[in-house]
Amino acid sequence: KQSLVSKKPASICAKNVVKKPVDKKPVVNKVAPFIIFQDPVEIYCQHCGSLRSKSSADHISKSLKEYKEIATQVEDVDLSALLCSEHPPEKYWETIAEQRRVALKETLDENMELCSLVEKLNLEIERLSAIASHADNFASVYYETVRMQEANSNQATRSQDSSCELNRIQST
């Protein structure tokens, strides 16, 4: 008996299928523009909402302008071309050092701002904890006063009830 199923199904299918050339579309590399996020210079404090002093806003914008000027000076040099040479020239190391100096300056400035913010927040925490302790003391005194008034009113009610009962007993 011959089996209905062939041992080589691919050869049977290959006879029936007409091969068409595959059109390959060229792959186009679409490079998205690289955008560096920069925080907008805000005049209001993001934490407390108070108006920042003009000098600190000017300081921030001035340091941002300085950074942009330095960054554009550094970008003019093609670092990859310098790095791919057999022995990187001195200009490469100067460029790297300048970039690191700028990054260090930014970091130190940010750290100074954060330190001053931490000091202000610690003072605010101390002030608010003092207010909270005063509020707790006031609440405890208030509740004690309310309890004493309730106790006095309960005693007055009991004494009136007992005097009413005595009057009723005596009148009968």
TrEMBL record:
Gene3D superfamilies: Geminin coiled-coil domain
Top-rank taxon: Eukaryota
GO biological process entries: regulation of DNA replication
Coiled coil feature spans: none
Region (Disordered): 152-172
CDD domains membership: geminin_CC
InterPro entries, per the entry: Geminin/Multicilin
Name recorded for this polypeptide: Geminin-like isoform X1
Organism phylogeny: Eukaryota, Metazoa, Spiralia, Lophotrochozoa, Platyhelminthes
